[in-house]
Amino acid sequence: MSTAAAAPAPGAGPTGDVPMVRMEGVHKWFGHAHVLRGIDLAVPRGSVSVVLGPSGSGKSTALRCINQLEEIGAGRILVDGELMGYREGVRRGAPALFRLHPRQVAQQRARIGMVFQRFNLFPHMTALGNVVEAQVQVLRRDRATARARAHELLDRVGLSDRVDHYPAQLSGGQQQRVAIARALAMDPELMLFDEPTSALDPELVGEVLGVMRDLAASGMTMVVVTHEIGFAREVADQAVFMADGVVVESGPPGEVLVDPREQRTRDFLARVL
Question: pTM (2 decimals)?
Answer without folding.
Answer: 0.90
